[in-house]
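Here we describe the complex-level prediction in full. Unlike the single-chain runs in Section 2.1, the two entities below were treated as one system.
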Amino acid sequence: MKKKINLACIIDDDPIFVFGTKKLLEYTGHCDTFLIFKNGQEAYNHLSTILKKKATLPDIIFLDINMPVMDGWQFLEKITQIDIPNQLKIFVVTSSETPEDRQKAKKFSSIKNYVIKPISISGIKEIIDQI
Amino acid sequence: MPHTRAYRELLEKTASYAKMGSWEVDLENETVYWSDVTKLIHEVEPDFECGLQDGINFFQDPISRDKITQCFQNAVANNEEYDVKLLLTTAKGREIWVRAIGMPVIENGKCIRVYGLFQDIDVEERKQSELNRQLQFTNDVFLNSSIGIVISDNKANILKVNQGFCDILGYSEEEIRSITFRDFTHPDDLEESIIGFQKLKEGEIKTFTTEKRYKHKQGKTIYVHLVLTVIRDKDNTPIQYLGQVIDLTKEHESKEKLKSYLNVTTDQNQRLLNFAHIVSHNLRSHSGNLKMLLELMNLEHKELLDNELMPLFGQAIEGLGETINHLNEVVLVHSSDKKNFKNLNLSQYIDKTLESIYATIKAEKVTIDKNVDNHLQVMAIPAYLESILLNLLTNAIKYKSAERDPYIKILTKNLENFISLQIIDNGLGIDLKENKSKLFGMYKTFHQHKDSRGIGLFITKNQIESMGGRIEVESEVDKGSTFKVYFKK
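The structure predicted for the assembly as a whole is:
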């Protein structure tokens, strides 16, 4: 039974990664509706508005760490300050393999997992299985 | 001879006060007279009768002996008085300083007797010579010391300097005395020195110690260590100031040089680390994208799989990814932290590694001869220790000789500060003459093995060194290799 996701959010400044992840999710049939943001600030602005309006939140968030304007950590700091009824399901997807970043990720309970780029078809399946 | 007797008595009286005895040699009758004090000085019995030749025998010191002989002969022959200091050896064998005065008595142009005085001046003489020795010593120190010494008066006028002080500043002594401290002290250090001098003068401090700058006669700056002390008279009034100066210019220069080297190195190291992070991170993004795109392309355009270029694309992208992984491993080694160190049982870690490669050991028919003390503990980062052992043991198997079954001996030794681990194989060996300097370099492989990546030993060495240890290798081509690793205890 294939798990279906209503809305996936990708926060990444790399258009190729965004394109590829979208494609993989579409191809595997997990999801076909997306929210795309180029950095943490854009994502925060939009998501905090959704939260205030009590509109539908994404079922999963793919979050990059190194981004201009507001990076992944700053985004996490801000978004976790908002009181949310249902826990956000965030996957950090990054090229950074430093132990410091891995350690930092453990501090946020909303982070479901820490994934090193790139994501393959099997990788996508593993992620979806975790939510 | 009444006048002689009267004279003698007079002498005897004064004599005992000044440890002064009298004597007389009668040349006509060939007799010798010694007063009691004279006998006392010679440390002979009171009834001692001195023969004509006996007196001279108390002068065992050759210089004194020659001197008194000459003086006496001169008195007799040339009618000359003498007053000399001599070293006398008493009857008890003690060496003492004496003063001998002799006066000839002439009758009808001929010396008939010589009389005189004998004084024990040993205590005074020894005091004086000790004083002279000390003065000489002080003077030698003052003259020859490479420490600059300067003596000034209350108003900081220079009274005396030694050669060392002149050498430091490049002026002659005469030139220095015509200038003042203000002339050769660096302007920025003048105030501190004046304050220090003032405090010293007022007794607020006992010594004034400072590191300051002087100006050499030729204009260059000299760095010195100065110790200034005050010389007071018996009423405790400061009269003079003694300054001792050590030239630190050379030390200062090498310190500065070292500092600048350190800055450059730290800077370069930082940039290198940044570079490595950027390369590993940014390259990974691109290579990751390539991999993903290739996967998508294969999914959406299955017909492309028939194209002969596609697998090659795949290999190239795979290779790029692997290189970036290596690079990342290298970067990570250098960011090892103290708190990650643990006390680990070496034997257990070796067993764990051997277990993990059990399949290979069996397939390659490897004999493992493990002779390891079960109690040895090393200070290491667990992941590094695993990686080091795995790399060295798999290398030992990987580079086996085709002509014999692989045999690996594992030994440990408990040294003072280190635990040494030896992994000895009977494999292909490495030509160390050719390759020793490159052995632990990045991307150096010495064998045409299919899995040679040329990164293992580089990372192993870096991991060992980042844990404060070191690695050594001995090898002979076609005999085998021994890798010796030193871990911190």
